[in-house]
Amino acid sequence: MVRPVHLMLLLTVVLWALNLTVTRYILQHGFQPLAYAVVRYGLASAIFVAIAVLAERTLRIARRDLGLVALAALALYLNQIAFVYALDSTSASTIALLLGATPIFAALIGLALGLERMSRRFWGASVVSFAGVGLVAAGAGEVSATRLGLLLGIVTAATWAGYSVAIAPLMARSSASRISAVVLPLGWVAIAVTGGAQAADQDYGVSAWVWVLLVFATLGPLVLTNVLWFRALHGIGPSRATLIANLQPFVAAVFALVLLSERMTALQVAGGVLIGGGILLARRRQARTIPAAGE
């Protein structure tokens, strides 16, 4: 039976998936990468601060969490730099498939920090997923892709995993809106310092359609999904929610193929299947050990 929480989760996946196609389109139609990141995250930061202040009347974070906040902001900064330049130089469908490896990166980071203990099944799943990443990269020669873009796509997946690991403990002690209201502005300051010159040189006389898509990329994949995702986690638990969220790279690839008329090679399709298969293999163990919140 389909519940409202499932619809919220599916909408979240669709919005996340659309973000890659929308961003690729914006970067191909007038916006420079860093200028786009400066404008988008500046707008999102202002929105999250307003939401947190109105809802909670404070942005206070415990002193013991300041290190994690700084780490999360750094990971977010690196993630957005890699993200915009990856999509500026490489097809959205290719980047989408590479992002499918994010859960494996997150588990490896958790292992390195002593937060995770992995079984042989997980290591097998990692090998399968990274073999898939290799096939995606190998098949990129026949599509719109560069070696730097492929590397940045992998960095995007790894830094998003690092961001996710960093904010996980924060979520146990503060609300998602408050954490976003603190972490995003800090990340935006670093983005603005890095991209200030590019933002100043940007010609903002782009088409109205590009501006509409930029607002959508901010309000939908950044702001609305923040609310929907955490409600979904509360409604059906992390194991079920993340399992459904693993559809996002494949949905994103389909959107890019249909809306941007991109091409995908047989090697890339095989790579995407391997990445997804590795994630499912790893999740089989996790689903048995992490009870859903609703159970």
Topology (elements, then pairings):
Layout: H1 4-28, H2 33-56, H3 66-89, H4 92-99, H5 102-112, H6 120-138, H7 147-171, H8 176-201, H9 208-236, H10 238-245, H11 248-259, H12 266-289
Keywords:
295 residues, 12 helices
In short, what is this structure?
The protein is an all-alpha fold and 295 residues long.
Could you estimate the helical fraction of the residues in percent?
over 70%
Strand content: under 5%
Major beta sheet summary: none
Number of helices: 12
Average pLDDT across residues?
83
Order of helices and strands: HHHHHHHHHHHH
Q: Give me the secondary-structure category.
A: mainly alpha
Query: End-to-end span in angstroms?
Result: 16 Å
Global shape: globular
The strand count comes to 0
Radius of gyration: 19 Å
The tally of structural domains comes to 1
Flag low-confidence runs.
285-295
Overview of the structural elements:
This protein starts with a helix and ends in a 6-residue tail after the last helix. The radius of gyration is 19 Å and the shape is globular. The chain has 295 residues and is mainly alpha-helical. It has one domain. The C terminus is likely disordered. It has 12 helices and no strands.
